[in-house]
Write the structure tokens for this entry.
Amino acid sequence: MSEPRWLDAAQQRDWRAYVDGSVRLTEIMDRDLKAKHGLSAAEYEILVRLSEAPERRLRMAELAENASQSRSRLSHTCARLESKGLVKRDNCPNDKRGVYAHLTDEGFDALDRAARDHVETVRTFFIDIIAPEDLEAIGRAFTLILKRIGSVN
Amino acid sequence: MSEPRWLDAAQQRDWRAYVDGSVRLTEIMDRDLKAKHGLSAAEYEILVRLSEAPERRLRMAELAENASQSRSRLSHTCARLESKGLVKRDNCPNDKRGVYAHLTDEGFDALDRAARDHVETVRTFFIDIIAPEDLEAIGRAFTLILKRIGSVN
DNA sequence: AGAACATAGTTGATGCTTCAACTATTTCCG
DNA sequence: CGGAAATAGTTGAAGCATCAACTATGTTCT
């Protein structure tokens, strides 16, 4: 067991800023979405991904992947969304194990309303206060992180 | 109700990279900490903040603030940590409403062990793959976000 | 064909988070 | 002083996430 390679002062400062900032940012956005539209972040993310899919529908596994959720979590959340009438699930004709989740018209409208508020919050607490070149740096960094995580799983 | 100011393609790309990346990064780190040391991220964060405080103790409210947790959540999590013997709570002599949470020796050791693994994970998925100047950009950006959020509450 | 294995998705139990309500103490201010 | 309001912290209920177990179907290989 070798000595750990501790972070230097600058690394620690930046890492901490990220951890604290992202925790609080997430909290604000979740609360906002819930208060104004009754949607959890997980639900919102599912609606977004479905809205962008061809014919506004996706297989459960693909939806789980896109929304960065476990299949179990997706099943539960989808059940809730379905009971709200925002999503509907149908059997897949080709693969009898499969299920398509698709956005209902009502779901699309709910998403549209939520997204209009959401983008303002994203601007207020993220986009509009970060220098464009820093935003690019964030994009680069987290794309790398995603790649790194992908290569592990 | 005016038209929303939608994000342009680059902003959307960077924002999405951040959202997806941070969700998956958090997930990996939480899982790692839980598997190797039986600690949730919330528990770990509390131990860290206590370990850095003078005399390794803090008032509950201050600890909640430092660890970015609600007081309610802190109460629950502290109760769990206390039952594991990692933290102890005592009444505050000055303020009879107040409570000090302090790290036990056992808690300090548990944190030390966890931190040694944690720093490696942070390096593997964050520090070591991000260009230093991009890391600085992240530090700058999230410090601004924290300031922005702080000025709201 | 058919046995072994892999994949798709769901379910229920357990545990953590959130929210609102609550007690107790302290501060503020007429 | 003394009542109103603010602050500290806890609690229990309800909601959401995680985990392991499970059913059902599809794929592979001999």
